[in-house]
Amino acid sequence: MISKFTLSVFLLVATLMACAQERPLDMKMDFEDYDPPSSLVVPEHHVIRAKFPFVDIHNHQFGMPTMDLGNLISEMDKMNMAVMTNLSGRGRGSTEHLDNSLKNVKDHYPNRFLVFTNVDFSGIDDSDWTKRTVKQLEDDVKKGASGLKIYKSLGMFSKDRKGDRIHIDDPRIDPVWAKCGELGIPVLIHAADPKQFWLPIDNQNERWLELKTHPGRRHDNDPVSWETIIAEQHNIFKKHPKTKFINAHLGWYGSDLKKLGELMEQFPNMYTEIGAVIAELGRQPRAGNAFITKYQDRVLFGKDSWVPDEYETYFRVLETEDEYFPYHKRYHAFWRMYGLGLSDEVLKKVYYKNAIKLIPKIDRSLFPN
Asked: Where are the beta strands (DSSP E) in the chain?
């Protein structure tokens, strides 16, 4: 005969087993799939139009020689972008590409676009490369180029005829940096990539999700270190104090604003911009506000990739004091953003005043005082 106690235990076990079948205890999922909406109820401000007209100092329009600029202007006007900087003036290295880009701008919207030129390092072993490149730079500026953009390929992928990596601070390039100073044009330079791309791809790497979904961005097996490339970049800032350099992407020190501040103090000719690194500022709103406020005369607005819908994140981080809102690309920043709430005076400098200071040819009538 079964006791009441034994029967109760049996029924309890049976119930638990039935519940386990209905709701399995295994709740594992891939990290890529975990993206719950926040239950936090806080004020939200979706800023689709910047508070002030702005200059995007970091953009790429490879189709500029033949594209209908009117369509681009329509998108720019919606978000209050007064001036766009196309850093890819020479496209893949063609003088014709630059000439046609400048002509398209001049014929249709001469005060709404800036075009930067580029340098081809593939012939650096030629005895006349330096002289030829300096002459090309002079000619491009006479045609209307507003600055020089250096791609990350210099220091990472560009090689000489021996197959050796071309260093950013290669002395054969020194006359080019010096000439930019003489011509009064800025050099916007992108060196390396985020430091985490060189670190082991494991559970200690906070960019793991990005590297998992975009394995082509990995540099953990590269023969040259992140520190080496960055040091070469800093060397040219030091060697050419009369040249204004715009250190792209916060110089990849957006996650270490103390170090970035030290660099700003060390190199008074170094400016910086926020393209593709707004997520770093958005997760440290108090530190981000303090940094931009302190260096308000040397921080510029930049976006990098031309995806109009993504600008809202930038405006929201810079202008509002919103809390805990998502970044537009989860793989790029799975953490949440917070608004810096910059003052109007600081916003004006980031949005347009600093760009006008660096590039006086910008039409001031497009902006308030």
From this structure: 54-59, 81-86, 113-117, 147-150, 187-189, 245-247, 270-273, 299-300, 325-326, 336-337
- The string of pLDDT tens digits covering residues 164-189 is 999 999 999 999 999 999 999 999 99
Contact 277, 310 (CB under 8 A): no
Mean pLDDT of 319-327: 97
- Which residues, in sequence order, are bridge partners of residue 114? 85
Token pair 């850093």: residue: 87
With a cut of 70, say whether residue 107 has pLDDT above it. yes
Give just the sign of the alpha carbon dihedral 338, 298, 186, 246: negative
Contact 249, 277 (CB under 8 A): yes
| 296 and 344 Cβ atoms separated by less than 8 Å | no
For 53-366, the fitting CATH number among 3.40.50.720, 3.40.980.10, 3.20.20.140, 1.10.238.10 is 3.20.20.140
How far apart are the C-alpha atoms of 45 and 284, rounded to whole Å? 19
Mean pLDDT of the residues in the chain: 94
Virtual torsion, Cα 78, 79, 83, 86, nearest 10 deg: -100
Mode of pairing for the β-strands spanning 325-326 and 336-337? antiparallel
Tens-digit pLDDT profile for residues 228-284: 999 999 999 999 999 999 999 999 999 999 999 999 999 999 999 999 999 999 999
